[in-house]
Amino acid sequence: MLHNRSLVVAIAVFVLLVIGYSLYRWLVIASLSVNSVPEGAEVSLDGKRIGLTPLQTDVPTGVHLLTVQHTYYRVYRERVEIDTGDKLQRLVSLETGTGELELLSNPKGAWVEIDGERQTGRTPMRVTVSGGSHELLMGHAERKSAGRIVDVMADRVTDVNLDLPIDPHGTLNVQARPSDAKIEFVGLEQPYTPRMRLPVGEYGLRVSKPGYVTQELRYYLKYGDSAPTVELVREFGALNLNVSPANADVRVAYKHNGELRVEAYVAGMQVPTGEFDVQARAMLYRTSNKTYSMTGAGRKLDIKLPMMDVEVGAVIKDPLAIGGSAPELVVVPAGSFMMGNENGPPSERPARRVTFTQPFAVGRYEVTIADYRKFADSIPRPMPLNLERGEEQWPMHLVSWEEATAYADWLSEQTSQRYRLPTEAEWEYVARAGSATRFSFGDSLEKVCDYANVADRSTGVVYRDWRVANCEDGFSRLAPVGSRKPNAFGLFDTSGNVSEWVQECGMPQYRTAPSDGSVAGRKSCDSHGHRGGSWDSSGDELSTPYRNSASSPNQDRGFRLVREM
Questions:
Q1: How many angstroms separate the first and last alpha carbons of the chain?
Q2: Mean pLDDT of all residues in 103-122
Q3: pLDDT band with cut points at 50, 70 and 90 for residue 18
Q4: DSSP string, 137-195
Q5: By CB neighbour count within 10 A (0-12 exposed, 13-18 middle, 19+ buried), where does 510 fall?
Q6: What are the extents of the domains in the chain?
Q7: Is 404 helix (H, G, I), strand (E, B) or coil?
Q8: Distance between CA atoms of 43 and 67, rounded to whole angstroms?
């Protein structure tokens, strides 16, 4: 019984002690409870680590510095005052912090990507980023890229130094033939540029140009300079024509290896793919000049020439859109003639046969001042000063080759017909008018004053030192057009009055000149031909085959025009 009483007393004393201690802790001892978002933050009091959140601990009374920090977040700091028995609680939401990356590379000057985003500048460099884990990549020309995952602590500087191993490169400079072929990579979006630097390795190349067989190849680029040669093979197709009339002369023109080739048509002939021209002409039929496109499968074409329906010898006056009419034209017949003079100077040799397969129209007279003034007033364009008060029916003179061509183009616009300067062959054909003599009126100058205004006795009165023709035409200088007799085609002043501009540059050789009467030689030059002599000529310059050239206008130089039918 006594034992039981002692046990009860002991329990009572223990309970009283527990209650007393609890009351002491509740009423006297102060405590601190800290929670954070996120959890696991380190808690320090007065600089001494006391645990990780969530945390509850006894603290002495007084003023303390509470610090809560987590790896990637801004440090939370607060001064807290604790009295006896205080139960202080804090819930701290940490803010994401930033840190700095000190970036170095070997070699320096590397570009930097952080989390896939290219940074401004190159190493060495310092970059501020958010706290946390980041993917870092560095690269340099002709070096292999290097990267790593970097943990950035808030408010701290993290040093990163990466070595970039050498990545062997070579220079690629493809030598393509033809040189303007297109070069591109196969399976690589990067465009090709000459002498580009690329990592050593194998590349797919495609070389192409319209009209050539495309080549694709695999090329292994080595260290150093590489200049592979790729020569494209021209692609050809068979040409088959059905031409009416069957006796038409057919020529095919195309470019091959940068050279223009003109060949007589042969059934099934091989023509390079791409554009080619076909000219078909036959006597008394309209010439056909058309451009076609050849494919590797070949082309079959039907060409039918329409017959010419014109009246030879007819006089034409095309109306102008501004009112009035163009200069009178005479339709001359198709035909052949011997151009040049086998016994003449080198410029007139060798004599050769030229054939015109269709009629064309040519100016009945030389273009007059009145004709040209319509053009000058319409553009407007100033007239030469010496012509402001000139005789309107005199031939236009003091006019350059370019001005004569501009007038022909203006007539083409005004009439919707094709006007132009004559070729040398056309000019000599119409000047001869069927004759084979030195002049259209014979081999002698005895009758020259009947057909031409030349340097004669009238001219000799003014220019006493000149050698002049022994006849009288009544004019000391220029004469109104049509003042003398016409030739057999009804054309006036093909000899004398003014020398007439033609299309040709200078005086091209007859040996290589075309036989169809088309323009010979170059398309652009510093001088152009003029034919027929003028009012100040008295001898060889008046002969039909005589040739001359000039680069500037003169008072004894004019022109007449051709109109295509």
A1: 154
A2: 95
A3: low
A4: EEEETTEEEEEEEEEE-TT-EEEEEEE--B--EEEE--EEESTT-EEEEES--SPP-TT
A5: buried
A6: 34-95, 98-163, 169-231, 236-304, 315-563
A7: helix
A8: 6
Cβ(339)–Cβ(425) under 8 Å? yes
Q: What percent of the chain has pLDDT over 70?
A: 95
Give yes or no for a contact between 88 and 66, defined as CB atoms under 8 angstroms apart: no
Contacts of 21 (CB under 8 A, 6+ apart): none
CATH class of 98-163: mainly beta
Kindly state the average pLDDT of the residues 144-164.
93
- Phi, psi dihedrals of residue 298, rounded to the nearest 5°: 90, 175
Cα angle for residues 254, 256, 257 (degrees, 5° grid):
155
Q: What's the alpha-carbon Rg for the chain, to the nearest Å?
A: 51
Beta strands in 257-363 (DSSP E): 259-264, 269-272, 274-281, 288-294, 299-304, 315-316, 329-332, 335-339, 352-356, 360-363
Concatenated DSSP letters of 38-105: SS--EEEETTEEEEESSEEEEE-SEEEEEEEE-TTBPPEEEEEEE-TT-EEEEEEEPPB-EEEEEEEE
What is the rounded distance in angstroms from the CA atom of residue 245 to the CA atom of residue 243? 6
CATH number of 315-563: 3.90.1580.10
Domain range 169-231, CATH architecture: Sandwich (2.60)
Please state, for a pLDDT cut of 90, what percent of the chain lies above it: 77
| Torsion angle of C-alpha atoms 356, 359, 360, 362, degrees rounded to 10 | 90
Instruction: Match 């006597």 to its residue by tokens.
Output: 283
Fold of 236-304: Immunoglobulin-like (2.60.40)
Distance in angstroms (rounded) separating the CA atoms of residues 300 and 278: 12
Task: Choose among 65, 42, 46: nearest CA to 153.
Answer: 42
What's the rounded Cα separation, in Å, for the pair 50 and 52? 7
DSSP string, 415-469: HSS-EEPPPHHHHHHHHHTT--SSBTTBS-GGGHHHH---S-HHHHHHSTTS---
Mean pLDDT of 199-206: 95
Residue 125 CA neighbour count, 13 Å, CB half: 16
> Number of C-alpha atoms within 13 angstroms, CB side, residue 258?
5
pLDDT of residue 7: 74
Q: Which fold has domain 34-95?
A: Immunoglobulin-like (2.60.40)
User: Could you write out the DSSP letters of every residue in 107-152?
Assistant: SS--EEEETTEEPSS-SSEEEEEESEEEEEEEEETTEEEEEEEEEE
